[in-house]
């Protein structure tokens, strides 16, 4: 291991150094004799092991032990200011240029244990099954492709229609009437020929259709954007949970949009929410209520024909949140934020967000006693972060079914 300082600059103020990678989180360290600054200079080069660093520092004064240097390096790693140079250097030339900003993004989250290149490798080695290439996923596919996800399987049943053009930018006017999924696959191939993309004409009529596709393609993650028929989320949930495959889902109502995910054996699943409130035909964390007017509002809303109000800016926003959750699940750069939780974006107050967690149910037929063994990905990502999630019991005045 050869620790290397990230893109850190510093300035001396008396006996202290102020180190900055991100201006939001400067680090002040003591440096009375100047040897900390010498160490930082050596770490910037990233070509010394810890014992070699100790030997170098010892030439200019009292002996410094390898344990001392190890402690300083560990402290810097705790502030995510160092990587292991031995875990860097695989991305060179054109591949480095292609992933320049991806690598720079991952630098922020890299540690001695997992370098920016390790994090990017996780994405590039991953296979994502994209269910539906409509409003939501025509806004997640470009993000997954930009990240360089190595393999994409796209599935859809529809043809391109003129009403898609408000938000589905993978398609052009020339694609009207033609297979949506083939056009989406062609877009990915044009965007980056290194991505292994395949397409499936798929009409989902039950969980077994999703299960069969999972068995045939064996993805690491499902990005689900199918919104019909009613109940399709439970089919996707059943198939994914039974096979230990995490999935991400997003959708919109009238004045809200939302994103959620399920990590089998780690988070609550979609069926857990259904058990808590069987009236939840479509995802909504509004608590059940005896208020007659609220019940009437729900019933009346559900009696209306569905109108897709998704404009491009909204679908793009939702697609970005969903793609970010995919990125968390694929790389583990941070824990999934929406596992068993609904992130709601309120469109009527400047796009403020709230996060509501729903409870895992021991009696859930999908993830309870019949739960499958944890998937490899679930083990990688660990427990979801739910510390800031408000209770599902939080009162909510409006019901907003989600669909794209
Ligand atoms: Zn469940």
How would you characterize the overall build of this protein?
The protein is elongated, with a radius of gyration of 24 Å. It has 404 residues and is α/β, with parallel strands linked by helices. It has 14 helices and 13 strands. The strands form three sheets. The protein has an eight-stranded mixed sheet with strand order 8-7-6-9-10-11-12-13, sandwiched between helices. Strands 2-3-4 form a three-stranded antiparallel sheet, with no helix packed on it. The model is unreliable at 372-404 (pLDDT under 50). Strand 3 and strand 4 (27-30) form a beta hairpin. Helix content is 36%, strand content 16%. The chain has helices at 35-45, 50-58, 66-78, 93-98, 100-109, 116-124, 141-147, 180-191, 207-217, 232-242, 270-276, 292-303, 312-331, 376-381, and strands spanning 3-5, 9-13, 16-20, 27-30, 82-84, 127-131, 151-156, 196-201, 221-224, 247-252, 256-262, 341-346, 352-357. The chain has three domains: 3-86, Outer Surface Protein A, domain 3, CATH 3.90.930; 90-120, no CATH class; 125-381, NAD(P)-binding Rossmann-like Domain (Rossmann fold), CATH 3.40.50. It starts with a strand and ends in a 23-residue tail after the last helix. Zinc ion (ZN) binds at residues 268-269, 271-272, 361, 364, 366-367.
